[in-house]
Design brief:
By secondary structure, the chain is of the alpha+beta class. It has three helices and five strands, in the order βββαββαα. The strands form two sheets. The protein has a three-stranded antiparallel β-sheet. A two-stranded antiparallel sheet has the order 2-3. α1 (24-39) runs antiparallel to α2 (79-98). The longest helix is centred in the middle third of the chain and has 20 residues, at 79-98. The protein starts with a strand and ends in a 24-residue tail after the last helix.
Length: 154
């Protein structure tokens, strides 16, 4: 999944020689991201990265009961609710620093892709891991240079 800062503003840090350097807001985003797996024991976080204006991450649901492989485990929050919790927690902390109570920090909604096989998982992990190196060509880079962000993962 991908979550973007509202307005595409680069508020989470900067890329320096292919490495993401988180600022205070970026560190809060990271802490809040990691908090998800601490708070919800039925998920784990796979590959993720934070860029100046967005976050990519793989969320893995663990089977905790009936429902089968095509449904989220029973009693688990759907992805949208998990990401809503992330946004709420991180926004409150960031807004405390910015002295902007009640202001939205994250863009409404998110992008998602269901990973259906090992080949797709490997390709997406690679994309996420290398995203800081490819920041200049990223679709979400402020200069708007197109890339393969909306690539179809097989």
């Amino acid at each position: 999944m991908t979550i973007c800062v509202r307005g595409g503003l680069c508020l989470l840090g900067q890329i320096n020689e292919g490495n993401m350097i988180l600022n205070e807001y970026g560190r809060i985003a990271l802490e809040s991201w990691l908090w998800l797996a601490e708070r919800y024991d039925y998920i784990s976080l796979d590959e993720y990265t934070i860029l100046p204006n967005h976050l990519h991450g793989i969320v893995v649901y663990h089977d905790t009961g009936p429902g089968g492989s095509r449904t989220a485990p029973t009693g688990c929050k759907p992805l949208g609710n998990l990401l809503g919790a992330f946004k709420t927690v991180s926004t409150k902390k960031i807004n405390n620093l910015r002295v902007t109570p009640g202001e939205p920090f994250w863009q409404r909604n998110y992008w998602e892709h269901i990973i259906r096989n090992e080949q797709s998982l490997a390709a997406i992990r690679n994309y996420i891991a290398n995203n800081p190196l490819n920041w200049g060509q990223d679709k979400l880079h402020p200069d708007g240079t197109p890339n393969q962000f909306n690539k179809t993962w097989s």
